[in-house]
């Protein structure tokens, strides 16, 4: 069985790689001569919203909030809610969507670096 800490470290690695990949693609698109494919400007609101989403998801999972880690039914319901919110938010501008995705990855990376690499994972609350 894989430990929670090992899963957390894998999450950290994947979110870090995905963040770097997204930033690299933005840089490549920015350096492109083609103005039509230039990346959208980053939105501070999108970055913050994505960061809150990334941190919130991992925080709830680490603490087994509403038993989303241990109950399949509750995990499914929580996934439906977050997917619905994500779909609603995706109808915004390209700038917001790109910023939200990057913020989500950066938030998850920072959270996992703090809880999982530098500090132990929090235990489930009561």
TrEMBL record:
This protein's name: DUF8097 domain-containing protein
Boundaries of every DUF8097 domain copy: 1-124
InterPro entries: DUF8097
Organism of origin: Haloferax mediterranei (strain ATCC 33500 / DSM 1411 / JCM 8866 / NBRC 14739 / NCIMB 2177 / R-4)
Top-level taxonomy: Archaea, Methanobacteriati, Methanobacteriota, Stenosarchaea group, Halobacteria
A Pfam family recorded for this sequence: DUF8097
